[in-house]
Design goal:
Elements (H helix, E strand, L loop, with lengths): L1 H9 L8 E11 L9 E10 L3 E10 L2 E13 L13 H9 L18 E4 L18 H11 L5 E8 L9 E8 L2 E8 L2 E10 L6
Antiparallel strand pairs: 1-4, 1-6, 2-3, 3-4, 5-7, 6-9, 7-8, 8-9
């Protein structure tokens, strides 16, 4: 999902585009592609805000929709690291698919409950991306670890929200609590929530 999104943004004929920082991602997983299945990826801008944009991406095997992702990306000044207005020319490239739809970058996950189970989650140098921050995909490693502890149930829905992110020197603690259909997890540093995840699990077919 991140690869096809990055290619779409990097290949756009726009000058002066900043960095896109992931704010929120929701995954809806109807079925899991088999190993080496031929997957077709599609992505488009599905909404905009003053300093962010929503992207919808889909993975198909043949004509079957396997995974759909809806994400909010914040347009950020690469030098100051702060949100900045969408670049000139954005509407000419992605405006048609967004169709004027306005979206919010507000986060919705709650804080961890006092009874949440907690454990340390050490970071590795390989978790860092090209700008020195923990890569978006690295957060899912902790989710995979929790799924393994639960007998590796199939995931049908997952969403992650980023508040301030993580750095390599951070002493990260994972807080986990059960939900009605799976579990929630929070990435915390000295009690401060940096990111959070909701995961819904059930039997899921493989095609």
């Amino acid at each position: 999902m991140q690869d096809v999104s990055d290619f779409d943004a990097a290949s756009a004929p726009i000058d002066g585009m900043g960095l896109w920082i992931l704010r929120r991602l929701e995954l809806r997983i109807a079925s899991t592609p088999r190993f080496r299945a031929e997957v077709t990826a599609r992505t488009w801008c599905s909404g905009v805000g003053p300093r962010w944009a929503e992207r919808t991406s889909q993975l198909h095997v043949n004509d079957r929709l396997c995974v759909e992702a809806v994400s909010i990306w914040v347009h950020t000044d690469p030098e100051r690291g702060v949100p900045t207005p969408l670049p000139p020319g954005f509407d000419a490239v992605w405006g048609a698919s967004a169709a004027g739809r306005k979206v919010s970058a507000r986060l919705s996950h709650s804080s961890p409950p006092p009874a949440a189970r907690r454990r340390a989650w050490p970071l590795r140098a390989t978790d860092l991306d090209v700008v020195g921050h923990v890569n978006n995909a690295a957060y899912w490693a902790a989710v995979e670890d929790e799924l393994a502890r639960r007998g590796c149930p199939r995931v049908r829905h997952a969403e992650i929200e980023f508040r301030t992110g993580l750095d390599l020197a951070d002493a990260v603690e994972i807080a986990v609590a059960d939900t009605d259909d799976g579990f929630a997890a929070w990435f915390c540093v000295a009690g401060d929530v940096r990111a959070s995840v909701l995961v819904g699990c059930e039997a899921c077919r493989t095609i």
